[in-house]
Design goal:
This protein has 267 residues and is of the alpha/beta class. It has one domain: Vaccinia Virus protein VP39 (Rossmann fold). The chain contains 8 helices and 11 strands. The strands form 2 sheets. An 8-stranded mixed beta sheet has the order 4-7-6-5-8-9-11-10, with helices on both faces. It has a 3-stranded antiparallel beta sheet with strand order 1-2-3, with no helix packed on it. Helix 5 links the parallel strand 8 and strand 9. Helix 1 crosses helix 8 and helix 2 crosses helix 3. The longest helix is centred in the first third of the chain and has 12 residues. The protein starts with 18 loop residues before the first strand and ends with a strand.
Length: 267
């Protein structure tokens, strides 16, 4: 529900607070943004980029999550975020990991931010505690400074300076990145995009300006998947922008994900 996250939002033009009036969100300076009937608000201020998640990608991702293939990853994210409401999920997609991060706390609040309108539509329906916003992580986030307890970033771009700005001094950043073995069993067979070695170390090095690394956990396991689910694993992510093969069969697939927890540096 967008009402539950209004006190977290800032006008992307002037930075002022937003309030709801007559089906729009507006600031004191007169900037106004329509609320979509699906329950999200578009604060992007322009067209979607070409790499925004499509409805087909989101449907594939929902099926993969429903099958439980990434449950151990979601559990690590949830454990790292526990008690850290409000939670901002950047690149939220279906809001699967955001809902996991909110846990069973009825008073927790989640803000799902994604550059894809299709993703915002899905996220707005994910949980009554979630509000969904369309915005670009590479621009200043339409979020007030020092108001967020946890930023979650799972397989998504990382604007570390903005993450540090919106987090409370006692907040945390939870980042999940794929390891080099992620999706082995499909990668070579179908020519999927490769994950560089040591991506978690690269993230940690980039974060040093703003954050201190406090915890690291790795989910690494193999799962047997039928052909349809194997195809969904390819179709749910960036490989879908290249080509989803027609000849995907059943496979044993590696899941290799590192979950890191950071805290803001004293400033």
């Amino acid at each position: 529900m967008i009402d539950g996250v209004l006190d977290l939002l800032a006008c992307p033009r002037c930075g002022g607070g937003l309030a709801e009036r007559d089906g729009t969100l507006g600031c004191a300076a007169g900037h106004s943004y329509d609320l979509a009937r699906q329950g999200y608000v578009n604060l992007l201020g322009g067209p979607e980029p070409a790499n925004a998640d499509t409805p087909l990608m989101l449907q594939a991702r929902a099926r993969v999550h429903a099958a439980g293939l990434f449950t151990p990853v979601a559990e690590l994210v949830a454990a790292a975020a526990r008690g850290g409401s409000p939670v901002l999920d950047v690149g939220a997609g279906t809001a699967h990991y955001l809902v996991a991060a909110l846990g069973d706390d009825p008073d927790a609040v989640g803000l799902a931010l994604d550059v894809s309108k299709a993703a915002a539509r899905v996220a707005a329906r994910a949980d009554p505690r979630v509000g969904a916003v369309v915005a670009d992580v590479w621009r200043p986030l339409p979020v007030r400074s020092r108001c967020v307890g946890t930023v979650v970033c799972v397989f998504a771009p990382r604007n570390l300076g903005e993450f540090a700005r919106v987090l409370r001094p006692d907040g945390r950043l939870v980042v999940a990145t794929p390891g080099s073995a992620h999706l082995d069993g499909l990668r070579d067979r179908h020519g999927l995009l490769r994950v560089p070695e040591g991506k978690d170390a690269l993230v940690a090095a980039a974060a040093e300006e703003f954050f201190e690394l406090v915890d690291t956990h790795v989910a690494r396991y193999r799962v047997a998947v039928e052909a349809a689910l194997a195809r969904d694993l390819i179709a749910m992510g960036p490989n879908a922008f290249h080509r989803v093969p027609d000849d995907v069969g059943a496979a044993e697939v590696s899941i290799d994900v590192t979950v890191q927890t950071y805290r803001p540096l004293d400033r």
